[in-house]
Amino acid sequence: MEFCKAAKTECDKIIAKYPEKRAAMLPVLYLAEKEFGHISPEVEKYVGKLLDVPPVKVHEVMTFYTLIAAKPRGKYHFQICRGLSCDLKGCVKIIDYLSEKLGLSSDETSDDLMYTFTPVECLAACETAPMMQLNEDYYGNLTKEKIDDILKENS
Amino acid sequence: MPKITIDSTEIEVEKGTTVIQAAEQIGIDIPRYCYHPGLSIVGVCRICLVEIERMPKLQVACYTPVADGMVVHTNNEKVQQARRAVLEFLLINHPLDCPVCDQAGECWLQNFYMQHGLYDSKMVEDKVKKQKALPIGPNVMLDSERCILCTRCVRFCDEITETHELGIFNRGDHTELLPYPGQELDNKYSGNTIDICPVGALTDKDFRFRTRVWYLTETPSVCPGCSTGCNINVHHNDHRPYKAGGIRVSRLKPRYNPDVNQWWMCDEGRYGFTQVDADSRIVAPQKKTRGDWQLLSWQDAIDEIATKIKGILKKHGADAFGVILSPQMTNEGLFAAKRFFQETLEVENIDFEVVAREKGYADDFLMKADKNPNSEGAKKIGLSAVDNSGLEVAQMLADAKDNRLKALYICHHNLEKGFKKEEVKEALSKVDLVIFQGTNQNSTSNLANYCLPSASFVEKDGTFTNFAGRVQEIHKAVEPLGESKPDWTIFRNLSKRLGKSMPYFEAGDVFNALAEEVDAFKGLSYEKIGEHGVLLNGHRASTEKEMGALVA
Ligand code: SF4
Ligand code: SF4
Ligand code: FES
After folding, report:
1. Yes or no, beta carbons of A56 and B182 under 8 Å apart
2. Given B204, B229, B256, which residue is the final one in a domain?
């Protein structure tokens, strides 16, 4: 378990920005997640080695942030908002619809590692409620039809 | 040096002192959970909040360094309210297992609730459930619901043992203290996490459901597990012995000594006391007749042994007599033995050291390879073979094998730890009179003609000298089991029967006589040893040196 050359260079750059290695934990974990898909126990140990801390310290940070993937995630990660504004605009139905379409319930990943379905708290885009985030992009004013279209585009 | 005012008392303290420490100096005890003087400061529990004038908000006393002119209030209405609020938060998801929790009676949630809480609970919601009765290592049981996340145990494993087994995982009210996945809390000092856990989250497997702590009595003592001599308290069950199934000593806890063990002790010592209540205890004098042990009264035992000793000395001379004393004995036992064998019997073959064939575990913290508490004392009292130009233990056994030794007086040792089983057996079988004196039966006692019962370390007063030359006191916590007596009493009685009385009535008398006679002990007195011990002459070891890596 090791970063490729490019990632290693980037990692070194990140670490160099901080007065102590340990402080680079979050950006290095982010990089590691991008590189390895998720933070497995092996990745934890590797990150610990890079930052000169015992793996248990990496595990503490990793479990604190639900944003960091502890398990493998699908190619398409649906994070659908269940916050107050979205709820007021009827997100419950949309969430159920998406869940049914994907055949996944909360926090599940499909066996073929294509889809991960995660209801989340507010994503700070209430003006487009109900909304969701698919990988890096926001999709707002969701309807069942819109969901169908998005699924068609991303499969 | 900054001058500050705490609850209208003015005090001048070293720069860098924290408010909690400054308050301690004038006897004000600010409540704390996460703060522990032996660990780094994190300021996470917030129970120590105090008001500092001209600061907008309450401050944590454990983390705030004093500044000149500071005016601190540790107990006004605002502070009391904050403490109540902190307790209320800590108890939101607390299971209140008190009736079945081992910590009850020594729990800081209970204590502080009674001192600072006393609010009516507003919680009507269900509590968050977490893992209970989870064994996380060979000695420690975790109840995650009871944990208040103070991180003391985590810091202990990070900073003291540097083994990093524990961590705080997840977030919010799902936050949980656990070992790193796949790892156990299995280090040589794991029991200390139980001591410093302020609540019932970490409890001792060995002590689980044994007894409620309010039935225990504490007696200060010294761990006999190795030559470090960690200071301890012996917790014994005097109040409800019928509930304990004959187990009088319930547990050992470390006792603070800045020069020796600070707040800690190792697990080997902590759990190594079981022999004091074991079935193997020798509880009365006994002799072997035709292969069977037969009990004797002390009077008869002393009479018979004295007669036999006299006979052998007369017939074969002192050269045919060997004495193997033990570094498990107190200074008092050793000194009385020295007087008895050297002066009363004029025997020269005296030694105490049996080098263990299996080397004991040692590290650069507390644990020493020499698993005896008083080797240094025995050396200083002059009980090595070289001091007496007598035979070493190995030579005694060789002589015995060649029929040159007619009597052997063995104290405490299991000779098999230093020599091969068959060798010991063969040697002892050729000696006319083998006397074993000790606390427990072992393979050596089984080869003796007479066994005399010694009181164990929890059953007598006395002193041990640790590896650094520190003389420290042990105290009688429970009565000697059966007919057992302190070693020095046995030698005094034997000596009297053989014509020379020793005017000793208490361990202190023996120690004071020793201090008069043995150079290294000159100037010391039993009364002046005190709770942290005193160094022998010529042992002005600096604290750092004595504690080794502890300070580094
Ligand atoms: S930890 Fe303290 S308050 Fe909690 S159940 Fe145990 S005794 Fe009671
Ligand atoms: S287990 Fe005890 S010592 Fe460890 S964090 Fe919890 S309350 Fe603190
Ligand atoms: S003791 Fe000060 S914050 Fe815990």
Report:
1. no
2. B204
A88 shares a domain with A31: no
With contact defined as beta carbons under 8 Å apart, do B107 and B87 qualify? no
Asked whether the CA dihedral B290, B294, B300, B302 is positive or negative, the reply is positive
Task: Provide the domain limits for residue A17.
Answer: 5-64
Q: Which amino acid is at B187?
A: N
> Is the pTM here over 0.90, yes or no?
yes
Ligand 1 mean position to B218 CA, how many Å? 22
Give the closest of B165, B169, B183 to A60, CB-based: B169
Cβ neighbour number for residue B73 with a 10 Å cutoff? 17
- Chain B residues inside the 8 Å CB shell of A44: none
CA of B203 to the centre of ligand 1 (A): 11
Phi, psi of A27 (to 5 degrees): -60, -35
Taking residues B406-412, what's their average pLDDT? 97
Question: How far apart (Å, rounded) are the C-alpha atoms in residues B484 and B481?
Answer: 6
Residues enclosing ligand 2, CB less than 6 A? B 147-153, 177, 197-199, 201-202
Q: What is the pLDDT of residues A31-40, one digit of tens each?
A: 999 999 999 9
DSSP letter for B383, please. Answer: -
Optimal mutation site among B164, B166, B183, interface A, most CBs of chain A within 10 A: B164
Confidence at residue A137, expressed as pLDDT on a 0 to 100 scale:
95
Q: For chain B, how many helices (H) and strands (E)? A: 14, 23
Residue A107 near chain B (CB below 8 Å):
no
A99 vs A69, A147, A153, B210, B522, CA distance in Å?
A: 20, 11, 17, 52, 85
Shared domain check, A132 and A105: yes
Number of domains in chain A: 2
Task: Tell me how crowded residue B119 is: count the other CB atoms within 10 A of its CB.
Answer: 13
Give me the interface pTM, i.e. the ipTM. 0.86
Q: Is B128 helix (H, G, I), strand (E, B) or coil?
A: coil
Number of domains in chain B: 3
Instruction: Examine the domain organization and report whether B491 and B348 are in the same domain.
Output: yes
Asked whether the predicted pLDDT for residue B84 surpasses 50, the reply is: yes
Residue B40, CA distances (Å) to B14, B220, B308 in order: 19, 27, 63
Pair type for strands A115-120 and B59-60: unpaired
Q: What is the mean pLDDT of residues B242-257?
A: 91
Closest chain B residue to the Cα of A59, Cα to Cα: B169
In which domain, by residue range, is B136 found?
A: 98-204
Contact indicator for B220, B231 with CB cutoff of 8 Å:
yes
CA B200, B205, B208, B214 torsion: positive or negative?
negative
Q: Do B58 and B51 meet the contact criterion of CB atoms below 8 Å apart?
A: yes
Tell me the two tokens of residue B177.
């203290």
End-to-end C-alpha distance for chain A, whole angstroms: 30
Separation CA B299–CA B303 (nearest Å): 6
Predicted confidence (pLDDT) at residue B541 exceeds the cutoff of 60: no
Instruction: Give the mean model confidence (pLDDT) for residues B30-49.
Output: 98
* Of B404, B402, B417, B241, the residue nearest B326 (C-alpha): B417
φ/ψ of B440, rounded to 5, equals -130, 150
